[in-house]
From TrEMBL:
UniProt entry tagged with the keyword Mitochondrion: yes
Protein's job: Component of the ERMES/MDM complex, which serves as a molecular tether to connect the endoplasmic reticulum and mitochondria. Components of this complex are involved in the control of mitochondrial shape and protein biogenesis and may function in phospholipid exchange. MDM10 is involved in the late assembly steps of the general translocase of the mitochondrial outer membrane (TOM complex). Functions in the TOM40-specific route of the assembly of outer membrane beta-barrel proteins, including the association of TOM40 with the receptor TOM22 and small TOM proteins.
Name of the protein this chain belongs to: Mitochondrial distribution and morphology protein 10
Segments of skewed composition (Low complexity): 266-282, 426-435
GO cellular component: ERMES complex; SAM complex
Disordered: region residues: 262-282, 426-449
UniProt-annotated location(s): Mitochondrion outer membrane
InterPro entries: Mdm10
PANTHER family linked: MITOCHONDRIAL DISTRIBUTION AND MORPHOLOGY PROTEIN 10
Membrane topology: Multi-pass membrane protein
Domain notes: Lacks alpha-helical transmembrane segments, suggesting that it resides in the membrane via beta-sheet conformations similar to those predicted for other outer membrane proteins and porin.
GO process annotations (BP): establishment of mitochondrion localization; mitochondrial outer membrane translocase complex assembly; mitochondrion-endoplasmic reticulum membrane tethering; phospholipid transport; protein insertion into mitochondrial outer membrane
Keywords: Membrane, Mitochondrion, Mitochondrion outer membrane, Transmembrane, Transmembrane beta strand
Length: 461
């Protein structure tokens, strides 16, 4: 489950019309959401609040032998009025990423206009004062030695965004050494047709570049056809550190169906045509082009010889599958991972907040209905969908993870368990160019099993 501050940062991206899918770093985001989810390893409680449309706070308390926690603050110049902040109202699919439907590339705003008060989350990357949209976020992890994580995000123009991330760790209490700090600077240029990201880290003076190109019509061209059924994207990344002589690179492809490929066209769209043409169009487009949305990716890391392919499929709105096969040409080792997610919908009664005129509605019901000889019927409580999701992941070594996330009363709860050999290592090492899984307990690797159970609880107001 995403942290509350990560959820607010995603809301900031939506409010400032920034397409996070149009990036090489998001090339395999769909498969990662289904296969690389993490399970809680202990009891952790989160108390969060979006006290104003511009300011959010979050407090975390965890225990694993010793009690630790964190304090987070976030400020956004762009108003987040349309962002649900109560844990009872936040859509669970926003906090528990699953199958990620890639959207068609869109052209960024062409002018720096002021946000429209009527729809503050669907306008331009400027706030209501005409300034560039800016976000500040800081998290302090306690107890000592404490770590401070800070983020500064600013939209320079409709197509460019600047990000500064700082991580500072204080030494032991008796140490007089200066805190260890590192700064990561990222400049993103997103035109819809392509995107470029330029990175620099003070850690080993690392320079980096990432790029993504979308095949097909340019969304900035007004004459381009807006109806697209699929999207093919190609990208690459490269890193170099003159201090440590570190070089890294990778390249990848992504093919994904777009919502237009599975949506059934509305019959009202052809109402302006003649009756014969309308009948022909409706009959032809009665069925979607593709039965199930799916995404395929291929990534290659030449220096380490790692090759990885993924296939993700959404079989229904509540069921999705994903698989990944990795192979290393130097060590001849391979990796196979499969996973799925199952969503369950229920109905629950929810009492909405009083909007200030509920007393007037009750007075009218109590006075009008009896005068007409009709008994005033009690008003039922409003109902909402109560969703929950179960995620399962298993690899070729029979390392299994199970994660359940859902609502319990007014709380958002995430509970998970992991089972597998003691030599288990995360499959995410493949994305970093690892040649294979590391050995663990020697001859007992196939017999010794570990288990971990954790629960994370979120309450926000």
């Amino acid at each position: 489950m995403l942290d509350f501050m990560d959820y607010i940062q995603l809301a900031f991206a939506e409010a400032t019309v920034w397409n996070r899918d149009n990036s090489y770093s998001s090339l395999t985001a769909t498969a990662q959401s289904l296969l690389d989810f993490s399970t809680p390893e202990r009891l952790r409680v989160h108390l969060s609040s979006l006290s104003t449309p511009h300011f959010a706070t979050s407090y975390t308390l965890g225990t694993v032998g010793l009690i630790d926690g964190s304090v987070s603050y976030l400020f956004s110049t762009a108003p987040l009025d349309n962002t649900p902040s109560r844990s009872a109202l936040i859509p669970l699919r926003k906090l528990s990423p699953g199958y990620r439907q890639v959207q068609a590339p869109i052209a960024p705003p062409t002018t720096d206009t002021i946000l429209d008060d009527a729809s503050p989350n669907t306008a331009s990357p400027n706030n209501d004062h005409g300034k560039k949209a800016t976000l500040f976020h800081a998290t302090l992890h306690l107890p000592p030695p404490s770590t401070l994580n800070a983020l500064f995000l600013r939209r320079i123009s409709p197509t460019m965004q600047l990000s500064l991330a700082v991580c500072s760790t204080r030494g032991p209490p008796l140490s007089k050494s200066a805190p260890q700090a590192s700064l990561l600077t990222q400049l993103s240029h997103n035109t819809g047709k392509y995107s470029n990201e330029y990175l620099f880290s003070t850690d080993n003076a690392l320079f980096g570049w990432r790029g993504l190109w979308n095949f097909g019509p340019d969304p900035r061209d007004a004459r381009a056809s807006p109806s697209r059924l699929s999207l093919l994207s190609a990208g690459a990344e490269a890193y170099y550190s003159p201090v440590s002589s570190l070089i890294g690179m990778s390249t990848g492809l992504r093919f994904s169906t777009l919502p237009a490929a599975t949506d059934v066209p509305s019959s009202s769209s052809s109402s302006s045509s003649s009756s014969s043409l309308s009948t022909t169009t409706t009959t032809t487009n009665a069925n979607p082009i593709s039965t199930f949305p799916y995404t395929l990716t291929l990534t290659l890391t030449p220096l380490t010889g790692s090759l990885s392919t993924t296939y993700s499929l959404r079989a229904s709105p509540n069921l999705a599958f994903s698989s990944r096969f990795g192979f290393n040409v130097y060590s001849w080792e391979s990796e196979m991972v499969a996973g799925c997610e199952l969503w369950r919908k229920g109905r629950r009664n929810v009492v909405r907040d009083d909007d200030g005129v509920e007393w007037a509605r009750r007075k009218i019901r109590d006075s009008v209905f009896p005068s007409l000889g009709i008994a005033a019927r009690p008003q039922p409580q409003e109902k909402e969908e109560n969703e929950s999701v179960l995620k399962i992941r298993v690899d070729q070594s029979w390392n299994v993870r199970l994660l359940w996330e859902g609502r319990v009363k007014e709380l958002l709860v995430s509970a998970g368990v992991g089972l597998g050999p003691s030599s288990f290592t995360s499959s995410s090492s493949w994305s970093n160019g690892a040649s294979g899984q590391s050995g663990g307990g020697g001859g007992s690797a196939g017999k010794s099993y570990w288990s971990g159970v954790g629960v994370s609880v979120l309450y926000s107001s």
